[in-house]
Structures are given as C-alpha cells and as structure tokens.
C-alpha cells in the first residue's frame, strides 16, 4: 500500500535542507555555480531556457488558449527560474511558484541579484488557488514534481489552473526517489512508461492519472530504477477544450514532434 503524506515536521525539515542547498549554490559553493552565473547574466540567460519548451509551445498557447501573451507558470522554480529569458524578452509572462518563495526573495535581496522573475509563494497542491482557475496557458515543472507531498493533487491543481487548450510540461530525473533513498523531499519516483507519466513511492505505485489532462509527449520509456546513470525524462499533457476544430489534433501531433525532436537531438 502506498505511504501517506509526510508529516509536517519532516516536510519542514526537508524544505530547510532545500533552502540550505540553494544558499550554497547562491554563494557559488555548490555543484551548479556555472549554471547560476549563466542565469544571472542576461547575455547567457537564454542558454538556460529548457529545450523542451520549444517556440512552438508559445505559438500553440497563443492560438489555442486565445491570448496574445501566454501566462506561464514555472512550478517549483527555485530562486532563479529557467524561463526568465522568455519572460524578459516578452514572449511569455512567467509566474514562478515555489513553497520557499519568501526565503528565496530574501536570498535574492541579500545577494543583490537583479532577476526578471521573482518567485511567488505557493505549491503544486494549491496552484489553482495561487494563480486562479482556467488562468494560465502553460505550466512548466523541472525536476520538482517528485518533491511534492502529493503529485496527484498537483496534477489536479495544474489541470484546474490551465486554460482549455493549455499545456503541462514536466521533466526531471527518472526514479530520483530511489536514487536519493527516498530521503528529504525525494519521496517519489517519477518516470514515463506506456505513453504517460508514472509515479511510485517507496512502497507502491501511486495513481496520478487525472481526468481532463491528456499526455501527448513522453520521452523515453522507463529504465530500471537502479540504472548506473540516472536518466532524464520528459512528458507533456494538454487540457482538451470542450470542442475542437479539425486542425487541433494534427497541430498537436506536429507540436509533439517538435518537442520530441528538441530533446532527442533529431
């Protein structure tokens, strides 16, 4: 049987560990100093933009969610959203959401960083309450969904926050919970198999199939969780509108090809 939610004290301790990680990185004393410096440099910042979020995603969002400038949520963004360059250049309006947003705001202020996107306090489990229902065109989540207290609740809230026709893009390390011994925030294994995102805790599979959120890209199929080299996964979902025209399905297939090619190097 799947485990219940982590108790509040353990989760708070795990969040404190996450904040300590980012404090080290902000001081350039961690493993990702190069990435931090690139994100802080406006010239190099576009290079940090995720390959999975291809320009076709913006074109889809404009057309299919009926907005001139799509609103995009970076869920679990950390202090420095990887979508900042797209926001800065006007392609999209990015709202970064993270449970540690208030702590990150202090960290940004202490470091004297000038960054175009400052996180807003919130979690995947409360996303629609934070950003509104039917309010955003795209939700992007990078290596953070496995940190959630309830991945299923996150997907339900992502669905509710998306406008009809909206997209959910998720990527991260497959089986990260196992790789991290299910310690700290790493309570779940996420991976893709049989055309959908899958989830497992330390004991059992966790059902994260949510009505109204339909997968259309998954790369690659799962490897064994004890793989020597952890693999990265990508998955994308759409929130189908109540009615679709004849071009919806072929345009979605074309978008899937562009996204898959972007991350496989084809």
Briefly say what this structure is.
The chain is an alpha/beta fold and 266 residues long. It has helices at residues 8-26, 33-40, 55-64, 84-88, 101-111, 127-131, 151-161, 176-179, 248-264, and strands spanning 71-75, 93-98, 120-121, 136-142, 162-173, 189-193, 196-200, 205-206, 214-219, 232-238. The chain has a single domain, classed as Rossmann fold (3-Layer(aba) Sandwich), CATH 3.40.50.
> What average pLDDT do the residues reach?
93
Low confidence ranges: 1-5
The helix/strand order is HHHEHEHEHEHEHEEEEEH
Tell me the strand order in the biggest sheet: 3-2-1-4-5-10-9
Helix content: 25-40%
Q: Tell me the fraction of residues in β-strands, as a range.
A: 15-25%
- Main pleated sheet: 7 strands, mixed
- Alpha-beta content class: alpha/beta
- The CATH superfamily is Vaccinia Virus protein VP39
List how many beta strands DSSP finds: 10
Count the DSSP helices: 9
- Terminal CA distance reads 41 Å
CATH architecture: 3-Layer(aba) Sandwich
Evaluate the radius of gyration: 18 Å
Oligomer description? single chain
Give the secondary structure arrangement, pairings included.
Layout: H1 8-26, H2 33-40, H3 55-64, E1 71-75, H4 84-88, E2 93-98, H5 101-111, E3 120-121, H6 127-131, E4 136-142, H7 151-161, E5 162-173, H8 176-179, E6 189-193, E7 196-200, E8 205-206, E9 214-219, E10 232-238, H9 248-264
Parallel strand pairs: 1-2, 1-4, 2-3, 4-5
Antiparallel strand pairs: 5-10, 6-7, 7-8, 9-10
Helix pairs in contact: 1-5, 3-9
